[in-house]
Amino acid sequence: MITKRIIPCLDVRNGRVVKGVNFEDINDVSSPVELGKYYSENGADELVFYDITASSEGRSLFSDILRQVAEQIFIPLTVGGAINTIEDFDRVLKCGADKVSVNSGAIRNPELIYEAAKKYGSQCVVLSADVKRVDGRFIVFAKGGRENTGLDAIEWIRRGAECGAGEIVLNSIDTDGVKGGFDIEMLDAVCSVVSVPVIASGGAGSINDFIRLFNVLPKVDAGLAASIFHFGEVKIPDLKAELRKNGIPVRL
Amino acid sequence: MTVIVDYGVGNLFSLCSSLKYIGAEATVSGEADIIRSADRIILPGVGAFGDARAKLSINALDKVVIEEAGRGKPLMGICLGMQMLFDRSYEFGVTDGLGLIEGEVKPIAPIIPKGYKVPHIGWNALDFTEEGQRSPVFKYISEGDYVYFVHSFSAMGCNSSIIASAEYGAGLTAAVQRDNVFGMQFHPEKSGEVGLKILKAFCEL
Q1: Beta strand extents in A159-209 (DSSP E only)
Q2: Which of B150, B154, B185, B199 is the best mutation test for A, with the most CBs of A within 10 A?
């Protein structure tokens, strides 16, 4: 039986993991290589790396780091951040990424999804959307959630999947950082218009939030989180053991 | 020495890194001489069947692979590389495969129940067949171990070669073997510890 995936997400800037990390078991807590290895050996089903570097110098440093991570972890690796062109896809795939996540780049140029899916296959293209409620509608935000695009999120995501995105990461700005649970209502709306896997992001604060997510919305395929894993508030093996106890299929 | 056949399809980085990690001597090559001199062959692949099949026939690498397999050299096809071992595929029209294992590659959508998503993406458990229990590539792993899948097409009509299947509303062909020829629909190089153990067992053949 296919299992629900648990995915830690690492924001990398200038070669380091941003958002402090708080692990006792590893020496250099801000090294993406060490942290990636730690997660892959401790139950993560997949890793997501976001490049939040601004300069091109930082970008080549990110490529080096990515290569080092990819050399040492043998689970799927998704890379996002500043993916605007097919050349950007090429750059990160050559460093060992398995999937590439597009967000603002696809909003500026929706053709990017189609072109990338045609060249690398749908399985390689992840559409990540930052979504917020505005006047009772779900609206897509760009530039890390700072810019209101006016786009209807449900329509945008439906179209993205139609153009070839093989997976959707739905990040609810409304629940992000609140640690009060995933945005079930928003996820449900998205799941009802796409048939590709949907990854829930934003709002996880406890093990119970994951149990509720998968129980209430069995259509959701994976849960993604950052700080609760980095700070050790939720340990992935404990989370998975609890999920299994609650009848949710996971890889132990 | 294990050769990973480079025919311009897909990313060989992870496969290479995983062989290095388990301490296997490996090289990436698209040259017939090197493939012939290798002790075993890995045929990788992602993307569409027709395109990959055409690329493999450039420089007659397909013939080299078929000949070497015929001489008893261990061969492992991974994902699309596995699908190419069969007689033919129905992805975007009909394309002939290498014909090393009897069977055809068809879309999974018609054989799985409604509500199951396509592609079949994620970690799924391996159910061994009787042959699978004895297969040398599984000697370091156990039935029920999880491996990582990403595919929309699957090998069918190959019952006598199946060594493992994966339950996804229907039993999907996960791994096949005919003598020295092996095929893995999942990605051992992305399946953590379990995948590395399968590659290790293959590199010991």
Answers
A1: 167-172, 198-201
A2: B150
